[in-house]
Design goal:
This protein is mainly α. It has 3 domains: about 90 residues, no CATH class; about 70 residues, no CATH class; about 70 residues. Helix content is about 65%, strand content about 5%. The protein is built from 11 helices and 2 strands; from the N terminus they run ααααααααββααα. A two-stranded antiparallel sheet has the order 1-2. α1 packs across α5, α3 packs across α4 and α6 packs across α7.
């Protein structure tokens, strides 16, 4: 089965639709064989079938039909080229269906490794604190906090998100990820941010403006994605959160 590629440009979407179309059994087992086999079969059969040769002559002209009949090498070359052209077209469609920003196997492995760091850290805390839990009589909430340590877990997740983005985009792009603390639907302060040596430039008071993206996201309880940060920075009214 051909895995469909998710793309954004018009060309990529068209190529993606073609890939999904050829994933069905009719194009694969009916149309594709017709495309490759029928033209070659007609040419080969015309060498021995007079009626078929006359039809070929009427379609292509006496000169081209005569050349094909007298040169079997051209027919062999045609069959090979037809197969090569078909495979090349399919490879081109696959190439344009995959956006430059699509994830590769290497990117996916990097994401899994980053997530594994967070999970492994939690496992280490669990093993490290198991003996203390067995010796002391603790409540379920105390055991949960001791093992999970939410503050540390959240900080690792934020660092992982920041690390994933920088890994995917290479060393030429710098990403900053921050998590804002909210109390009674009001921003209080930055809870954690990454990288740690580059704190956010905008404080909670400035971001409390109703027009800021974080306040609109908080009010609507939905995700807001800024497509063009540079364009947003040019606007007179602040609508994004600059970390």
């Amino acid at each position: 089965m051909i895995n469909p590629y998710f793309s954004t440009s018009r060309l990529s979407k068209c190529c993606n639709c073609l890939l999904m179309f050829f994933d069905h059994w009719i194009p694969r087992f009916v149309l594709a064989p017709i495309f490759f086999i029928v033209p070659s079969t007609i040419l080969v059969s015309s060498l021995s079938n007079t009626n078929l040769y006359q039809q070929l002559e009427a379609s292509l002209g006496p000169q081209i039909a005569g050349t094909l009949k007298s040169s079997h090498l051209l027919i062999i070359i045609w069959v090979v080229l037809l197969t090569y052209i078909g495979r090349s077209l399919f490879s081109i469609i696959q190439h344009f269906a995959l956006e430059d920003s699509e994830l590769t196997k290497k990117d996916i492995v990097s994401i899994l490794n980053t997530i594994d760091v967070v999970v492994q850290s939690k496992c280490n805390r669990f093993l490290r604190n198991t003996k203390q839990v067995l010796k002391k009589k603790l409540s379920s909430s105390e055991i949960f906090k001791m093992i999970t340590q939410p503050d540390q877990q959240i900080a690792l997740i934020v660092q992982a998100i920041q690390g994933i983005f920088e890994t995917l985009h290479g060393n030429n792009t710098e990403f900053r990820v921050g998590l804002m603390a909210v109390k009674s639907e009001k921003l209080t302060d930055w809870f954690v941010f990454a990288p740690e040596n580059k704190p956010p430039k905008t404080d909670a008071e400035a971001l409390s403006n109703p027009s800021s993206a974080i306040m609109r996201a908080l009010k609507s309880k939905s995700m807001i994605i800024i497509e063009d940060i540079q364009e947003e920075l040019k606007k007179k009214i602040k609508t994004i959160d600059v970390l």
